[in-house]
Amino acid sequence: MNDYNVGNIFELYSGNETLSVEQQAMRDRIDAYVEANQFKQLEHYLQQTRGIEQMLIDHVMMDPTDNSRWDMLIGYELIDTIEDFARVNSFGLTAYTFHPNDPFYFALALYWTGWNDFVITDEDVALAESLIEQGPEEVSGLLCIALARRDIDHFDYTYVQRAIERCPWAVEPYMRLGEHRLRAHPAEGKMLLQQGLDRVKYTWGFDQKGRWFNTGSQYFNPTTWRQDTIAELLGLSMDHDEYKKYERIINKR
Question: Which one-letter DSSP state was computed for residue 253?
């Protein structure tokens, strides 16, 4: 992948071996919000407080073998109003070098590369192909969706089909492929859309009495960030309005 001129984490690291008093106070405040399950307040604090990113970078580099530190930093970069996808890419790739047995970091980096019109190299594709076949289902799904968007002028639906095969519980591939097939084969397209909605309904979206609910965190929760991110990117956390929109498409004569 390209260097997006955002600086890699080694260049951004302060070089200090311990957090400063001010940085430790930030870290303690974050921990207090998490312990109290005050995630709305936590997200507001992260959005409004200067120096948070530098503290998180320093905290990671003091022990890059700690997954939770990477999750906190990369999750921070994806918070609304912050959303630095180039750094998600850069930090995700670096996290993967320290955690080669955790391909989620590479999959997340590749996902945001493809969707933001950055360049995915042949080397990236080769690694992604191996991980699609060998990695966990959610990693396979994310990688397939990322590679489907490799060419900004052409969406490769063969990768969407592979996402369904490799990660059959994911919703997003069914919705993508269903929308595509609606044009030439309406019945098949509607069937695929319904299969996607069924995965929302039975995996995520309704309780036993048929009432809509969503168990994902509305605000940034470092302890569930990975699961919440997977649910969002693979379509499991579809909201009620979007669900009803697809229902209307399916039921339209």
Answer: -
* Torsion angles phi and psi, residue 25, rounded to 5: -65, -40
* Distance between CA atoms of residues 148 and 142, nearest Å: 10
Nearest Cα to Cα of residue 95 among 118, 63, 140: 63
Q: Residues 39, 220: contact at Cβ < 8 Å? A: yes
Question: What global pTM score does this model have?
Answer: 0.88
Q: What is the pLDDT along the chain (253 residues), one digit of tens a residue?
A: 333 445 689 999 999 999 999 999 999 999 999 999 999 999 999 999 999 999 999 999 999 999 999 999 999 999 999 999 889 999 999 999 999 999 999 999 999 874 555 678 899 999 999 999 998 999 999 999 999 988 767 889 999 999 999 999 999 999 999 999 999 999 999 999 999 999 987 765 555 555 444 555 689 999 999 999 999 999 988 888 899 999 999 998 7
Instruction: Decide if 229 contacts 78 (C-beta within 8 A).
Output: yes
* C-alpha span between 118 and 151 (Å, rounded): 10
List, in sequence order, every residue forming a beta bridge with 151; answer none if it has no partner: 154
Instruction: Tell me the C-alpha distance between 253 and 20, whole Å.
Output: 64
Dump the DSSP string for 105-154.
Answer: HHHHHHHHHHTTT-PPPHHHHHHHHHHHHHS-HHHHHHHHHHHHTSBTTB
Residue with tokens 């969406």: 155
Q: How far apart are CA 28 and CA 25, in angstroms?
A: 5
